[in-house]
Pectinesterase inhibitor domain-containing protein (Lupinus luteus), 153 residues
Amino acid sequence: MARSNSFALILILQALFFIISIQARHPITFHPDSDPEADIWGLGALMVNDMERNAKAALAKIDALQRAKIGPKAGLDSCRTDYNTILVAAIPKAREALKKRDTKISEGPLNDAFNKVKKCETNFPRNLTPENNLLRDSVGYTIHIFVLTGITG
């Protein structure tokens, strides 16, 4: 079931990205009240905000688990360090890339963030799985959107 949901989400996102890429060539009005300036760069900014929100939520969960003394301290400390790195390195680089409209700036930090989230789930599964999955998906979608900006430019 989870695979079919993931597959469906990927298809929906690909269709959305296709529609957005068409907008660069032909003006399309999706809704009378839509922002005419909305584009793939705006979608990228929304995803970076989503990454930040998910990283902060994961850190709050880590704090709660540590206060309750649930799980291995070393695993939680490792995840905390990785998530802090995402907040202070990957997210600012992604915002800089959006501001300069040069996504190559954030390529390394975003890939590192994706790997850090996967490492956290591997080293400390179960209690942080929902937060890890949300952040992993946010980072992954952000990477894909940034790749599309290079295509649609």
The helical segments are 2-25, 40-67, 73-100, 107-123, 129-152. The first helix runs from residue 2 to 25.
